[in-house]
Amino acid sequence: MRYGIVARPRACACVLALAGASLLALAGGAIAETYKVSNTQQFVEAVGKANANPGANTIVLASGAYLPSATQTFTNTTGVQTVEGPTSFPPAKLEGGAVEPTFAELVVIKPSVSVTFKNIEVSTGGGSGNPAIDDFGTLDIENSTIAGNNGAGVHVESGGTGIVRNSTLSDGLDFGLIDNGTTSFFNSTVAFNKNGGIENKNTVNLTNTIVAKNTGAGDCVGAATTGDQSLDSDGTCGVALSKKDPLLGKLVNNGGPTPTHALEKGSPAIDAADKAMCTTVDQRGAVRPDVAGTACDVGAYEFYEPSHWYKNGVIIEQPAPDIAWGTLTLSNGSIGALKCQTFAGGRIENPVGGGAGRGRFDAFFAYNCTAPACESVGGTPELIPEKLGWPSVLSIEEPSVNRDKIEAIGLRVLCAASGTNVEFNGSLTPKALNGTSIGAAPSKLEFNAAAGRLQSVVGTGELAGKMKLMGYEGQDLLQLKSP
After folding, report:
1. Does domain 31-249 have CATH number 2.160.20.10?
2. Which of 96, 216, 351, 413 could be stapled to 106 by a disulfide with Cβ–Cβ 3.0 to 4.6 Å?
3. Over 50: is that where the pLDDT of 81 sits?
4. Domain range annotation of the chain
């Protein structure tokens, strides 16, 4: 009895001492670390460091391909381990083609380990029954693309948990995902996998998710446990939007950090999601919904109506106007030198077979004008366009050289303080540069500093610097989204 009385306090003291030492160790070592990497060796080293460092850690990948020669296994159970790529294209891409033995898993997440993949692309992983990502713990996939893998994109093992949000699992040789644990999808797309979309052996919850165009076993083997406003193309997933073609585009760069399948106009997935469960952005980072107050789209991609130009709230004809900008210098005996930044808009069509575009400028605006002679007497110079629109026509001034000329230009220069009122008229023509006319390319028209002169009653005005007209390539610069 005495041994028991004496021994029990000693045992308690030892336990307390050990507990205190453990708390001190955790307090001293549980410091979140961020590892920035840009090549495969650094990535492999970062995984090892994250496993060894207690607490949550983040591995930040630069754009590029990462091809480890061995399976990367996450073992840190003391905090979420995040692998994060860039927020814009091109992506950080984890590839399994170099992993030995061949067809082994690219990534393994051990039990009780939590890993988040964000803005990452995973490709060519697994095969011969092995998945690209084998999850025994907790896996959170966000704004990522798991595509083109040899094995299943993801296998959530018994006891494991998977969360797939704003992500794409597609174009694999096996299933997009196999579930033996619990997996929840939110606004994601599982498509074009050759062996099947999702194999549900336990619990799969689909929310605002597309599972479509998967071959082999079809979209789902085992219907979804829940299927809130989700879509399938063959009726196997037990969802509300069943047997519907979502009209998916190919897996390409549609903006954002990772490739996506765009929704084509007329897709039944557009505005069909559960409004209360919509994510705030899509996989690319585009705001959901595209029109405030409506439901968002089902799947990882939010469809936006093509952009349009408006005049007084009314849509105008397409294509959108082209724009030009540059620096214009005018001078004569009355006003001295006048220099303005300019901005012009019009409709320029590219001729069949190439050559510079032809059309007309319908708008012209000058700003940041300076004129020392006007300003010295307390005035402010103004440059006012006249005779709009100015035609842009094809001219041939030298053998085998086609050039555009902007004709019928009218500009009036005012300086109220000095009573100056001078009008300039004329045309501007691109000059040849090293034997090739500036503006010879179908979508590009540039006027260099020697492009021409505008005549006035007492002098000339010359173009200084460069004015540039972009054809189709520049049309996005001023477009407005259609509501």
Report:
1. yes
2. 96
3. yes
4. 31-249, 314-476
